[in-house]
Amino acid sequence: MSAEAVLAALRRDFLLELSTGFLYDCLAWKARQLNHAAYRAFTRACFSGTLCVDEIRLGVYTLLLATDPLCDLPLAFAVVRHNDQAHMGRFLGQWRDHGFHPRVVISDGSPLYPSLLARLWPRARHQLCAFHVLRDLLDYLLAAVRQRIRAFRRRASRPRRPRRRGRPTRQAARARQGRRSLAAQAAFVWKHRFLIVARRARLSAARRAALEKVLAYQPSLGELRRFADDLYRLFDPAQTAAQAWHRWEEVTANPAYRDDPSLRPMWGLLAAATFGKVLAFLGSPAGARQRTNNHAERTNRALRREERSRYRWRSARGMVRFVLLQIHRQWQRRLAEAAQEARPRPGPGGGGGTFPPPPPRAGGAAGPPPRCPQAA
Q1: pLDDT for res 247
Q2: Which pick of 7, 148, 349, 356 has the fewest CB atoms within 10 Å?
Q3: Burial of 345 per CB tally in 10 Å (0-12, 13-18, 19+)
Q4: Are 217 and 224 in contact (CB under 8 A)?
Q5: What is the mean pLDDT of residues 103-123?
Q6: Are the beta carbons of 144 and 177 closer than 8 angstroms?
């Protein structure tokens, strides 16, 4: 809610006439109660060893975010003016100095991370988000599809000769009818061009029939459709490392793909060094594998929704205060869940047990941090 909406709700429900300054004083009072050291100790005890890092633009500022996808917790954030390597290195360096040493770091394809991660955590594996890499490859593939369809449409809309006077001959009528059907085919192919890069397993019966019609109208798209199928097999999460590298060799050594100039921009993303980082999740245990950066992306999308409800962020202090309150709310929810799981359950005879004490308040006395259920 915005400040004006909160004041209107208090006036309507409680007949309170409050000022905007009083409301912001309440927010500042709540922010001063937050215990950042206790939360840092809590996340250090819960840390699974897998780290997601990402950045998001919020107005004129950039929010740098680090999350733990396996424990479902935000770990740290920073609000900066410039999204460059110096600010990112300072952010991750401070987080390392607090005692966090991840085994796997997941990021998108931004050039900010490789050299920084190699300097800060030389033993950690750098996992490239498979979703981002596959999305970039499909964008290049869809651009090649559009290029071929445009050539097909230009051929279908070729200027016709001026019509002679009198009744047209049968040959001229058949040629004009063929040009009209060719234009309809080009329009149909352009409308359903997304089927060339869609997953076959997720296509309905109607879309499968439309895909067959598209390939019948323009057979040159069949090669791109086969390349899309090979890409999906290449990024299959259920495969082993040996299978992935064997499929990678088949795709990169295929002369039909290598000699196609429209597919040439993709080979940088399919280089051996880049593909090895995409497969870094296979080195983790089966229950701790994380191949995408979606956890940090979901957190960023939640903050983006909050930004849209507020039109824009007025100051960096307001943004920092908002993120701190959101993290505090999630921390209290995790503590309540841990207390609920630790509560003794009644036995077969129906006897109950005593409830544990409630979780401490953020501004209370410092004590040993409670461990999360995953770390217990």
Answers
A1: 94
A2: 349
A3: exposed
A4: no
A5: 90
A6: no
